[in-house]
Amino acid sequence: MKLNWKLKIAIVVGIFSLVLAGCSDTMGGMDHSKMSMGNSETPKTTEGKTVNSNVLTGTEFNLTAVASNQEIAPGKTLPVWTFNNTVPGPQLRVKQGDTVKVNLKNELSEPVTIHWHGVPLPNAMDGIPGVTQNAVQPGETFTYEFKADVPGTYWYHSHQDSVNQLDRGLYGSFIVEGKYEDKVDRDYTLMLDEWVSSGKSMSDSGMSGMNHSGMNMDSSNSPSSENGMSNNSMTMGDDMSMYDLFTINGKSGSLVDQLQVKEGDKVRIRLINAGYLSHQIHLHGHEFKVIATDGQPINNPSVLKDNVINIAPGERYDIEFVANNPGQWLIEDHSDNKAASGMKETIVYEGASAGSDQSNASEKLAAVDLTRYGQAGKTSFTLNQKYTMEYTMDLNTEMQEGNTVYTINGKTFPDTDALTVKKGDTVKVRLVNNSKTNDHPMHLHGHFFQVLSKNGKPLEGSPIIKDTLNVKPGEEYVIAFEADNPGNWMFHCHDLHHASAGMVTELKYTDFKTDFVADPNAGNMPE
Length: 527
Known about the structure:
Layout: H1 2-20, E1 55-57, E2 60-73, E3 76-83, E4 89-95, E5 99-106, E6 115-117, E7 141-147, E8 152-157, H2 162-165, E9 171-177, E10 186-195, E11 245-248, E12 259-261, E13 266-273, E14 279-283, E15 289-293, E16 296-297, E17 308-311, E18 316-322, E19 328-333, E20 344-349, E21 389-400, E22 403-408, E23 419-421, E24 426-433, E25 440-444, E26 449-454, E27 457-458, E28 464-466, E29 468-471, E30 476-482, E31 488-493, H3 496-500, E32 504-509
Parallel strand pairs: 1-4, 2-5, 4-9, 10-13, 12-20, 21-24, 23-32
Antiparallel strand pairs: 2-3, 5-7, 6-8, 8-9, 10-11, 13-18, 14-17, 14-19, 15-16, 15-18, 19-20, 21-22, 24-30, 25-29, 25-31, 26-27, 26-28, 26-30, 31-32
C-alpha cells in the first residue's frame, strides 16, 4: 500500500507541477502576541496545496491528518502529510490548568496517532500505537483529553511509523502558557526540520528501519507490514546527506517569514527541533538569555552573546532578548552543511531600512553549556542520595547480520530490557554513548528528569530539568527522576532512524494495570 500511495503522489505531482511551481505559502515565525487567535475549523485543501499555518486557542481542537503539497523552497513543491493542511500543523495554545480535548480525524491512507512530546499526561493519552492505543485507521477518529498542568514549550507528532510520518510533516507545536510567567511583547515559535528535495522519505531510500507492525507488546499475532519488510530488517547506516533542505516552520531560504519587532520589545523565541539532525542556532546583534529548556525554566539565566544553542532532535529551547539594536538581524544555523543556508530567519525592526547583516554560519562559536549555566538552586535529587532503582543504559551502534543497528545494552527493541519501577520509586539512570560517530538524543515519555552530571562532573549552574537529552559520542550523563506517573512509557532515541532500528526501551510500572488491548489487525508501529 505504501508503494502504491507514493506512485500516486508522484503522478499527481507530475501532472500539477506547472500549476504548483511558483505558488508560495508564508509560514514563518508566528507573532502570537499580535495575531487573532480564535479557534477555527479545519482548513480545506485548495488545489492540493497547503494553507498558512495558524494558532488555535481555547480548550477543544480539531486536527485532521490529510495529504497535500507544500512549497518547501523556492520552486520546490513536495508531497507532504499534514495536520489541518499545514506543515507544521497549527500551534495549539492553552493555559496552565486547562483540560484540553483534541479530536483527531484521519484522512490519510495509513494509520496515525498523536504523541504529546514532553507533556506530562495520563498514559492512555500518550499516543503510542500498540502500547497505549491502537493506531487510528483511515477514516476513523480518536479523542485525546488531558489536563495541561505544567507550563512550557512542547510539540505534537505522529508516533505511528514515526520515522517516516515525521519526515512527511506530521507535527506541530503545543504551548502551555503559565499562570505566573513573565509577559513578553513578541512570542515566536520556530520549528526546525530537514527535508529531502527529491520528495522521498526514508522508506523510499532504503533506510526506513525496523518494521514495528508486529510490536504490539501484548500480542504476537500481528500481521507483517505493507511494505513486506520483516521485523528484522534494519537501516543501511546513518547517512544523513539525503537531507538537503533545512527549514524553519516548513519553509527554506527566501520563503522563511521575517520576525517583526519594534525597539524596546521583549521578545521570546521558542526553538523546537522536529528533525533528525542537531542545529547550532545563532542570534545576531543581540544579547540574550536561555530561559527554558524542554519547557522547564532555568534559574537566573545569565546574559549571552555570540553563543550558539545546540538543539538536538526533540529538544526545545526558549530564548529571550530585548530589541535594543534597530536594523535587520539574522537568526541562523551554524553548519558546514550547504543545506543550512536555508535555515535563516531575519529579525526586522519596524521602520528599519534594508539590513546589512551578513551570515557568519561557517564561524565556529562556543555553544551554551547547560552544565554550568544559570544559578544553583533547590533540587529534587543529588548524585549521592540513595535511590530505589539504578540503571545503566549503554547506547551503541553495532553490526548485526550485516546490518547497522542501534542498541541499548547490546539489544534492540523489542528485546531490550525494560526499566521496571513502582509508583514512588526514585530512579537514577546512567546514559553512556559508546557509538563512535552517532549522537543519541534520548527522550523519556511521561516524565521530566533532572540532569545530575556530565562525564562524571556534577552540574554547577541551574538545576536542569528535561525530557530529551542529547548524548554525544563518548559522553556519559547521570539523570534522575521520580516514578510519579504510572503506565507503560517509551524511552528512546529521538533520531528516529536509530529508534526504528532498535534504540528503544520501555519504562514499565509493575503496579500499573491497563485496560488497553492491542488489535493485531491495527498495523501498530510504535516507531
